[in-house]
Structure formats: structure tokens, C-alpha cells
User: What shape does this take?
Amino acid sequence: MSSDKLNEIRQGKEKWLEKRSQMKDRNVKFETVSSLPVKDLYTPEDVSDLDYMRDLGYPGEYPYTRGVQSNMYRGRLWTMRQFAGFGTAKESNQRYKFLLSRGQTGLSVAFDMPTIMGYDSDHPRSLGEVGRVGVAIDSLADMETLFDGIPLDQVSTSMTTNAPASILWCMYIATGEKQGVPSEKLRGTIQNDILKEYIAQKSWIFPPEPSMRLITDIFKYAKDHVPKWNTVSISGYHIREAGSTAVQELAFTLADGFAYVEAGIEAGLDVDDFAPRLSFFFNSHIDFFEEIAKYRAARRIWARRMKEKYGAKNPKSLLCRFHTQTAGCSLTAQQPENNIVRTAFEALAAVLGGTQSLHTNSMDEVLALPTEKAVQIALRTQQLIAYETGVPNVIDPLAGSYYVEALTDKMEEEAEKYFEEIERRGGVLAAIDQNYFQQEIADAAYRYQTEVDKKEKIVVGVNEFVHDDEELDIELLKIDPELERAQVEHLKKLRQERDNNRVNDTLDALKKAAAGPDNLIPYILECVRSYATQGEIVDTMREVFGEYKERPTF
Amino acid sequence: MIDVNKLLAGHRRMAARAISMIEDEDENKQKLLAEIFPHTGNAFTVGITGSPGAGKSSLTDALTRQARQQNLKVGIIAVDPTSPISGGALLGDRIRMQEHALDRGVFIRSMGTRGCLGGLARATKDAVKVLDAFGCDVIFIETVGVGQSELDIMHYADTTLVVLTPGAGDHVQIIKAGIMEIADIFVINKADLGDTGKIVTDIEQMLDMGRHNNGWRPPIMKTITTQEKGLPELWNTILEYKDYTHSSGAQRENRRKKIQREVMELLEEKIQSQLQTRLQSNGNMEELVDKILAGNSDPYSAANRLLQKFLSI
Amino acid sequence: MAGKIRVLVAKPGLDGHDRGARVIARGLRDAGMEVVYTGLHQTPEQVVEAAIQEDVDVVGLSILSGAHMTLFPKVCELLRENDAEDIKVIGGGTIPEEDVEELLKNGWAAQIFTPGTPIEKIVEWINNNV
Assistant: This one.
């Protein structure tokens, strides 16, 4: 922009301000939901430093700000991947078939708390928890039932498992074997992001070091045997759900990503060997433009660092490919139908932000797991965006918007400040030990709550537009407690009918290997094939690795 | 109401309620304490203080493990600061002692400083008596910082550990703030995190300059609680110190001093409260101040006159 | 020193979502109460033991895992077994209306606070009921 033109614009601003500064504004804070202040107007002045080729580039070209694929949604729509699972494998199998029949294009498995934490369904700590927040998977037998009638060479499956991810991944691979699908053909993702567990989701089992070892073992095994598999889904979703701001979500997630890259390199791998299979998972919260800017900043930051700091040469290593889930924490228990609309806005932001894959929440999820009716509406929300709004027709349509570009820059700038602080503290693992992330998140969560309680932030139906005479008229999904009993019975039977000598041999072999430097995946595969249960395998590893103990501060 | 017999027999709820009575300054507090006093004197107390973030809770947790291995019954009082603004407190030390959560041989109580000058020390000392009568063999008192109250508590404890970490940089302040007089053992925790040499040198220098009571020169021990390193050595040193004070007669003498100090403190408190009451009812403080301001009296004569009036002194 | 209200904020079961529990703990602290936070992954036995030793007036359970119909009754049962049924049990989390009614009706909770409840409402309830 020539300085003449810029001067014209500045003069125009003076004129505008003459009138505008006389006007009274509404008495609210003009900030994003993350409390980032925003101006009332953005103009070319705000993006005068923007260099198209340097800062934006073309889609599918460095620095990938405009998207990771050259033709984005013109070539292929994002994957519509609804997170699902409850009860036993049989119920969840039915739900997956329902969702596929309604147009879902990818599977996503939600496990129950015992499976997430490494306990079998008959463990005393599992009482009352079996099948409640996801599907109960105790052994390979359950995994086979989960995908009964679903050919694994024809779907891609995302599995939300972290601490025991290696085990569930092996069960999936073994299920593929049973179906006659070689591991080279398997497509999917395991979340496998242990760092964010310590920071936000808090479903850990082992301490950080052995956990990182399991992750690098997975990188290595995947490179040679499961090349189409995304080995980590580096997550910001949970960090945001725990109460962080958008910038914190961006910064902490990418910092975790860099930590995994460094771990892989330290384990002796070439960065291009494993980085192409790293993927991300972001939240899509209710402040529309903040989210869009966040995604674009994420792509640019990741690409630049991978190239400049870690020396990645393969273009695929520079791509921040991500799945998005709309924000659970933005939903309300009051007037739940409003959640359909919130989810729609959040989904739209994710699409405008260039997500590769999307899960939309159902309106009833503050109260229970979704009913078929509610999840169908959620799926339809994605299909409406895809087929009716016209938004996918144009790649990165908001590029060039003065606001969006300024905000993208701002998000990147703020994220860099966090990267510096994390460096100063000695890196991600050290910062976790110092409770740095946890404290930042808790502070942000508390600040948000106080603002809501003081009505400085409005939540429709909760602190504004509330009616005393409201009746909640919504059908909710109920988990039949009988399912827990059935699963426990089933497990008992399995333990009796399998070859227990073989099970013990495989567990012993795993235990010995865990104390040494071997890649553990082949050993875990053997355990899984012998129908050792998840709890038994985790217990074996617990004996060698120990358990993580949180030492929280306020 | 507190059933003292139940308390002495090891009833946990009774002990907990007794401590609450003490914290809340219940009117029956004195009566209760007088009743349980004859049953105290069995427990030995270990005070643990030092800078925030030094890992005191983890250390308490680890030492409890050591004590339990010897089948000793353990009491833990964990003190956290009360917010001077809201009067509330977040008591989060318990989290770091999860292992002992269901061990019937361990009793953990969290206390807020409650912002009362001297009040904390009094409440903690009395809570210790409850746990002593309840049956604890060793009682850990964990506080943070070096305020007057905390120092008071540490004076009261039989053994005091001062916990520092390398790299925190604040050990010089801690050492200067009056800790030297109370420290019986220095512990450098998280010893793997930095250069411990400087702290050790600084402490040794300070020790050279001062003179510790009863001829015991505080040793400087290193621990890494997250790796269970240095704990048995530390525990043994604590026991060593306990034996030392016992055999040198220092323990007996300390006990006498403590009791004397306690009686004096209680006396002072009572006198003060009596005076307050009387002054309020017919001390005519306002008139006195007017008189002094008008130049017809001075604070010293006024105080003397009041003393004569109320206490016949 | 006057008596303070003491509250135990607990995360029973395997659920790791502690955002709500932490925010409430701070809120209660800011309202002048003494709050003991148990940390994650507590068994009902651990919760009750802490409640007794800390002599709290209220136990607050935060449960987002759907296991509330098992955990609330269990905690109440253990409190009763230990002569501590005078300690009030309240809670919040992912608990549908029907279950709230069931919990209150059976005396397995004195009050349940759904998501969206302002902190001051909880403070008010505690101040009025303890």
C-alpha cells in the first residue's frame, strides 16, 4: 500500500472519529470470550505489514495459513466424525452403524472411564462407571464386536485413548488381522497425547518418562507397519474445556507438539520419519472470529517452526492437520435447544478455519450422552454447512479481512510470548512439573466464572433471558445398569475360556521388555492376541513404570 | 459434645471435633484441654517449615511412610495461609499424602492460619495435645513461611526441619529471618535440581557464626522425595536428635521451659482478656484520652492508675 | 477466633474433569470458608475418611462421569456407618433432572447444583443450611 493511500485512509479515520467519538456505546466489555479486547473497526492500517506471499501464501503451500490442501473442500469435504460410544461393544456397534447410515464419513470411538484409566470392568474402582461415558473395552473380543460388520479397510477410525493408547491401538490392529486387513491398510488416529493429560484432561496412568517412551515406540512401529495411521492427535480441546483462553489453547497445544517432535528426534528418528503423521485436535468455541484466527495462526506457526527450527524437509511434516470439536463447555443445561444454535456457529467457524475433520456436539450433552435424535441434528448441522451454505465453495474465504488477518497476527504474537515463557521454565515437561499450565488454566477458568457471575459475560438462558416457568422437556439417553453386569459376566467367561498359560507368557515377556529398550508394540500385540485384558496389560506396565501422582497447586 | 473417653480410645470423629472446638475457641475448650492434658506427653513433634515450593508436603508424606514402617501412629497438622481479604482458605496439602488416606494409623488435619495474631500458634499447640492424647506417637506440623506465628510453632516442636531447595535463591532470606535459632536439621529437597554447594556453604557459614542451643550442630541433609532418596537417612537423623535431647537432659529441660512458657502465655491471655472486659464496662477510656490530650495526664500515670483500679497492684 | 465453615470438595470415581471443582473451591474460599480439596480419583472411602478427619460441615461431590447414582449413595452410607450423617452432602456435575430428584428424595444428597449455577447461590445455600 502506498503511503499516499495510507494517508488518505488515516484522514478518513479522523473524519469518522469526529462523529463516532460523540456516540455512546452499549455498556458492555467488547472482548472475545477469552477476554481479548477487540477494536470496533479494522482497516488496511491494521494489516499494512501483511505480505501476501510471506504471511498467507496459497493453500497447500508454505506457510499454509490458507489451508493444508491445495484444493481444500473443493476436493474433499471435511470428515464428519461424530465421537460416540456407550454401554458395551454391541450397543456402540449399533450406534456406529446408525451414524454411518445417516451420512457420517468417519468413526470416532469414545471409551468409558475404566477403559480410559486402565481398569477392567470388574475392578472395584470400575463400579458404577462401566459404559457410562463411552464403550467398555476389556479385551480384543470386545474390539472385534465393536467393529462387527464394519470393514476396517473401508473406514478411518479415531480412538480417544491416551495413557493405554498403545494397547487399544494393538487391539484395533489385531481386529484388522481377524478381518483379513493388513496393518498397512489401516487408517485412523489415536489421540495418544499424554502431555495434555498432565495439563488438562487428567486421565493419566504412568509417569511422564515411560509415557513418552510408549509414544516414540508407537511412532517407530507406525512408520514401518501402519504408515497411514495418525500416531498422535495433539490436543487443545481439553485444555480449552478446562478453562484456558484461546491463545493458551493455541500456545500450549503447539508447545506440546514441539515437545513430541523433540522426543522423536531424541529417540533417534529423522523428523520427516514421523512428523507427517502428527495431527492436531482443536476446540471450536463460541467467539466466532477468534476461533477462525486461531486455526490460521496455528497452521502458520507450526509450518514456520517445523521448517526453521526442526529442519523438516518433507512438506507433509509442515502441515498442521486438525480435527475439531465444538465446545462442550459453551453448552448449557438450561434451554438446551439453544445448544443446537451454538454448535452450528461453532461448526461454521471450524469450517471457515479449514478443519480436516469435525465433531458437532449434541444439544443434550450437558445432561447425558446424546440420544439418536440429538446426534442426528448435530450431524445434519455439518451437512447443512457442507451442502446448503455455500461456504465450502471458496477456499479460506475470510482471508484479507482486516479483522481476521489482524486477529490472526495477534494470536500468533501472544502465542510466541507463551513459547518464550515455557522455554524459560525449561520446556514443557519442566513446566508441567512446576504446575505452570495447570495454574494458568485454573486462573483463566476462575476469571471466566467470576465474569459470568457478575454478568460481565452473558450466557443466554443462564444469566440473561432466564424464565422461572421453564420446564425442561427433553428425552435423555439412559445407560442401563444391567449392561455393566453383563459386561462383567462376559469378562469372567473370557478369563475362563482363554488359554491362560499363553496369556501369562505374553505378559511376562512384556514385563521383561518394558524394563529394557525394546519397542514394546510387538509385545503388546502378542498380549492382545492372547486375549489378555486391558487391565492385565496395564497392571504389568504399572509394575515396571510406576504410577503418576499429581501434585497440584491452586 | 466431646466424649473424652472415646477420644482417648482412638475415636477419629471425636478427635476431629475436639480440634474444631479448639480452632473455633469454643467456650468448653479449656475444660476439654484440662481433661486431656494428663494423657499427653507421649508424642514427639516434628515441625517442618521452609520456603513455598520446597516440597514440604511431599517430605511429610515420605517421613510418614518411614514412621509407619516402624509401626508408629502418625498425626499430621498441615497449615495453609488464610486469605486476609476473604477470611477463607484453600487447604490443599492433604492431596500430597494420598497414600495414607485410608491408613488408620495416620490422622491428617488441615488448618488455616485464620489471621489471628498468636492465634495460630495457640490452636496448633492445642491440636497437637489432642492428637497426642488420641494416641499419636509422632506428630508432624507442617507450616509455610517464617512469620512470627510459624516461628512460635517451631519453638514448640521437639524437632524442627527447615526445608530448602537449590535454585530457589531465597535461602538467604530464610536463614536470616530467625530460622537459625529453631532449625535442628536442614533439608535440601529436590537436591537433583541444581547446585546444592552454595546453600550448604551459606548455611555452614551461618552456623559457624551463631551458636545453637544444647550443643547440637544442625546437620544438612539432602533428599529427593520424588525418587524416595535420602528419606531413611533423614528419619534416622530425626530419631538421633530425639535420643540426643533425651540423653543430654535437654528434652526434660525443654519440656519444663515449654510448660512454663505455656502457663505464662495463658496467664497473659487471661489477664489481657480480663482487662479488656473491665475497661470496656467502666474504664472510661474516652475520658482518659481527653484528659491526656488536654495535658492533664500522661499515658504512664494513666496506665498505673488503671492497674491499681482493676488489679489492686 | 470465630468458627469457620469447613467444606470438603471431592472428585470421587475415575472422572478427571476438575474445572468445576476447582472453580467452586476458590469461590468458597473467597466467600470466607475453609475448603479442603481432595484431588482426583478418590474412592468413597477416601472421601469419607477425609471428611471425618477434617471435621467438615459439608461434603461437595463433583461427578461428570455419570456414576453419580452409585457414588452419592455410597458416600452417604459410609458417613452413616461412621456416625457422621450430620455432615451435609451436596454436589454437581452431569446429573439429569430425574436423577437429581431421585438423589434428593432418598436423602443421598441435600442439594444438587446443576451447571450454570452461580457460585453465590452455592455459598448462600451453605450459609443457610449449616
Q: What stands out?
A: Residues 53 and 336 of chain A are 45 Å apart (CA to CA). Chain A has two domains: 57-453, 482-545.
